[in-house]
Design a protein that fits this description.
With 124 residues, the protein is mostly beta strands. It has no helices and eleven strands. A hairpin with a 5-residue loop joins strand 5 and strand 6.
Length: 124
């Protein structure tokens, strides 16, 4: 069982930045960030494989950057130029696979381990 712990959320003004962090209890091929705001379905934001190949949702391309440190079993999400619509609970997710091919997606069905989330609030 992979355990994930997120940190780094907070309350910021529109246009500001945050760096979200997620520590995993072990190695996993795919790591991803999802978010969910009240009344909306959870959506995939970004995913990254163990080689550092990343994919992003169209809504965050150019503003968010996902990265990982395999030596620390950690994944990060740099969120820049925040907008009020980015406000949500951000979740870290892991597929739990020890190896993989072909990169990672931001589809929920690929992920079996979830953190508790870290809240991001953006005021205009």
């Amino acid at each position: 069982q992979v355990q994930l712990v997120e940190s780094g959320g907070g309350s910021v003004q529109s246009g500001e930045s945050l760096k979200l962090s997620c520590a995993s209890s072990g190695y996993t091929y795919c790591l991803a960030w999802f978010r969910q705001s009240p009344g909306k379905e959870r959506e995939g934001v970004a995913a990254i494989d163990s080689d550092g190949s990343a994919t992003y949702a169209d809504s965050v391309k150019g503003r968010f950057t996902i990265s990982r440190d395999n030596s620390r079993n950690s994944v990060y999400l740099q969120v820049n130029s925040l907008k009020p619509e980015d406000a949500a609970m951000y979740y870290c997710a892991a597929d739990g696979a020890t190896s993989g091919l072909g990169g990672c997606t931001t589809e929920e069905y690929e992920y079996f381990h979830w953190g508790q989330g870290t809240q991001v609030t953006v005021s205009s």
